[in-house]
Amino acid sequence: MNINIKPSGYSSTLRAASAVYAPCITDLAAAPMAEQFTVFIVDDDLGVRKSLARFVRASGYAVRTFSSADELLADDGVKGPGCIVLDLLMPGIDGRELQTAICKEGFEQSVIFISGTTDAPTIVEAMKAGAIDFLIKPVDGNALLAALASAVERQTKIYQRQNELATIRDKLAQLTPRESEVLRHVIAGRLNKQIAWTLGTVEKTIKVHRGRIMEKMAVRSIAELVRLTEQIGITPCEEEERNSKDSERVIIDIRSQSGRGGQALQVA
Fold first, then answer.
1. Taking a C-beta distance cutoff of 8 angstroms, is the pair 52, 41 a contact?
2. What is the pTM (predicted TM-score) of this model?
3. What is the dihedral of CA 236, 239, 243, 248, to 10 degrees?
4. Are 126 and 96 in contact (CB under 8 A)?
5. pLDDT reported for residue 257
6. Are 187 and 122 in contact (CB under 8 A)?
7. What pLDDT is attached to residue 91?
8. Which pLDDT score, from 0 to 100, does residue 103 have?
9. What pLDDT is attached to residue 225?
10. Which CATH number, 3.40.50.2300, 3.30.43.10, 3.90.1150.10, 3.40.228.10, labels domain 2-163?
């Protein structure tokens, strides 16, 4: 069934669609992010906005509408979890230009285009720029709900990834400056005695540091430790760093990544 996006005559379509898509509403309610997820609808046609908003809201999503790209960009409340259902052809900033602006502004919301055009190059460009889907009017209800479900899934993965990185940063923040220094030597594959010689200490001390690093980072192997540090952008020490006694230079990267770059760096 298609959603007839018109200023009038929508009520009967909405009632029928609500019954047809009831299973989708149930599935959405079970999604972890459903309560926070908002669908932001941008279209200069009032009838289109109302029609889409009613249908999407009846399908279990929170909805906000905007009459122009400028109106959306000026709203600070469009930073939360959600997706943007966007008309391609609008006065002023059009849909593709808004998609570009959204990327530059750091919006995390996915974009779903709706349009009457079937111009293949335009559709391809929009999809290459990261759009979830490009729906042709009259919009098919099943297709719209499928696109929204994909947007929820993508947003969930983004937030999961952010949480994973935040957890790694929290673990890094537990390391002492000396442990942070030793860490970069460890992930470079160096042995305890090599690290001890470079840092001017004894092998037994490095062994203790290595054990505490493994414990604080909650890993059981060097391979796990390397995978964690790669995710957060921590690199193994370079050859010149191995031969340097300037420990502040060796550990500055780790301290900044863990969010403690502003503290004084003291060598244990």
1. yes
2. 0.64
3. -40
4. yes
5. 60
6. no
7. 86
8. 80
9. 94
10. 3.40.50.2300
Find how far residue 12's CA is from the centre of its chain: 38
In which residue ranges of the chain is pLDDT below 70? 1-35, 239-268
66: three-class secondary structure by DSSP? strand
Pairing of strands 110-115, 82-87: parallel
> Is 90 within 8 Å of 63 (Cβ atoms)?
no
**What is the per-residue pLDDT for 108?**
77
pLDDT confidence of residue 94: 87
81, 97 in Cβ contact below 8 A? no
Any bridge partners for residue 64, and if so which? 40
Q: What is the pLDDT of residue 2?
A: 53
d(C-alpha 260, C-alpha 177), whole Å: 10
> Quick count: other Cβ atoms within 10 Å of Cβ 123?
18
CATH classification (class only), 174-257: mainly alpha
Q: Are 72 and 42 in contact (CB under 8 A)?
A: yes
Which spans in the chain are helix H? 11-20, 22-30, 46-58, 69-73, 95-105, 120-128, 141-173, 177-186, 192-199, 203-216, 222-232, 239-242, 247-257
